[in-house]
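Model it.
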Amino acid sequence: MPPPGPLVDPVARRREQRGWYFYDWANSAYVTTVGTVLVGPYLTAVATAAACPDLTEGEECRGTVALLGVLDVSPNSLVAFLISISTVVIALLLPFVGAIADRSPRKRVLLARLAWAGAAFAACLFLVTGDRWALGATLLVLGNACLAASLTVYDAILVDIATPDERDRVSSRGWALGYLGGFLLLVVNLGLVLGAGALGVPDGLAVRISLLSAALWWAGFTVVPYLRLHDRPPTDVVGGREQGVLGLVRGSLRQLGDTVREARRYPQTLLFLGAYVLFNDGVQTVIAVSSIYGSVELGFATEQLIVAIVVVQAVAFLGALVFGRVAAVLGAKRTILVSLVVWTVVVGLAYLLPEGRFGLFVALAAGIGLVLGGTQALSRSLFSQLVPFGKQAEYFSLYQAAERGTSWFGTLTFGLVQQLTGSFRLSILAVVGFFVVGGLLLVLVDVRRGIADAGNEAPRVV
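Modeled.
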């Protein structure tokens, strides 16, 4: 077992980094095929069949389903409620996962087990047919929780495989490979779903096969980081190392409490986390509402929106690589600020976009793709510089939990503005505020001081 930190041999270190990239490649298939495109409409259709079993074509379903056995919700609102439930579960779960990961000498094993559990839940979505919406709802929440937990461990491993000068590049390449993998499987699955009739495959079966393919992709490619990554002993462990699972959990809870109490010693880290929560909320809101804006306000068909989604995925691959190179010259903080300016411009142009101009809509989708991967990849690598060594997973659990736990602010703002004004254009314009305020907070972050406070080595370019 090598000591904590990156391997000294650059050849061995690059080999381990290439293995790490493949977890981005593996889980992005679930994010795109399942989370972004297919499971929402499919689960809504299954819930509609349960709520209105005698519904005829063209008739509106006025029935409800009993979520958690007590809450009657419309089938059209089910997925939104499930996302909210997932958010709460994840926000409560991740700090404990992070504390356990930091005490574990086998992070790669923990990563793989969480990934394979999530993939198993995703694979079982194939069994969701007829009116079995409750099974689908449970599997979706569990799959999302496993994904978030695995990403907490995965992000923390970045510090173990890359030197401070390498992290922007390594993080960007991981994101780029993830977008490429998600794009390739999504194209195949969209071809199957859209061409199901011509292939003689029922529409529902085509969706279920696509969901299963994403699960198998996630599980199969997780084998690469499992085999390529090295285990390392934990560092900065509070209260010694207890034996057994219960001992590990008890020690992890003590360490989590210690970390929460000591977080105030790292004000620059917390300031960056606050900035990230805001501008990332803007990013997630744009992703979430783009299809609604495109269909309702701009009048585009579903097939056109699918084309735009594919364009975003394809361009995001290149964007992550480009922004990784820019960061090598400007530093991660300045490059993220550049990306936030681009985000502001793109959203502002969306406000002005005339109805029915699909070519311009695709151009804006390409603009989103260009900055999407770079913003996320460099935020990950910059945060890794600001967390105390030995507590990476705990801080990345806060990073992931904050991202998901507050990701409803942007969509709530979008919905409230639309409710009060009746205008989707003013709603999309309101999202600009998240990029502006988040960017202003990021300007205030003293990265060099934050790195020094955390006791880390500063990269050549900050």
